[in-house]
Design brief:
homodimer; 149 residues; alpha+beta; Alpha-D-Glucose-1,6-Bisphosphate, Chain A, domain 4; globular; START-like_dom_sf (chains A, B); ASHA1/2-like_C (chains A, B)
Amino acid sequence: MVDILHRIGAESATVDDAYAALTTIDGLAGWWTEDTTAVADDVIRFRFTLPQGEDGFDMKVLETEPGKLVHWEVVKGPEEWLGTHIRFELAQEGDWAIVMFRHEGWKEPVPFMHHCSTKWATFLVSLKELLETGKGSPNPNDLLISDWH
Amino acid sequence: MVDILHRIGAESATVDDAYAALTTIDGLAGWWTEDTTAVADDVIRFRFTLPQGEDGFDMKVLETEPGKLVHWEVVKGPEEWLGTHIRFELAQEGDWAIVMFRHEGWKEPVPFMHHCSTKWATFLVSLKELLETGKGSPNPNDLLISDWH
């Protein structure tokens, strides 16, 4: 099992702001993908416009602790993502809202995992920008990092 | 042991361009840190200007295969980095120069590793920009991702 790990901080922001950006449709649509919808009480659907067609994930919300933790399980998506878990751990460090990120449970460190690791970093920078400036870069206006988008 | 993994691609670029950016002082200074120097035949020194003072790494070049591979061992730097290995594997996929990146051998998934994972992603995007536009964002003009820089 191998994990993707990241850490970002948003200046002049609070963990409550970060928590809202991770638990509301408007918040999530502001940094990850504009095409974010609630499909059940505890399932959020994320769809992405890519050159190769539409793609995306459904996340079951397993745990939420205001200002502290958001924990999802991938219940629909590419085979490599199915059953993996995504955790956002929040901490206030002075003026900074810190997000510790883990996408855990990958079976193998395949090339697609390398791609997703880099892509997560750019989306977390988008989250930071949303918290600091009010405007992130969600799909379809996300940063192109390679031929895989 | 845990690894940091990334994948980026530079459009209209060749693996030879990427190899030059990973094996020459000018190339490395164009995307990672401007303060890059050769300190021995097979050791490259990277220093970074940070709010908390100067920091950096010395890398021993273990393997180089033109257009294919660059492999370093960290011989000086923060304790968490010492003895870890960094690999850049290059592949031409049509018009794209693909870089598969691995920073392997971390003992524990500490918060600093989370930070370095995100930071590597932003520097690899800087490498992509250097290859595509002739201009990257090396330290001290790198992207600030948190209170840790």
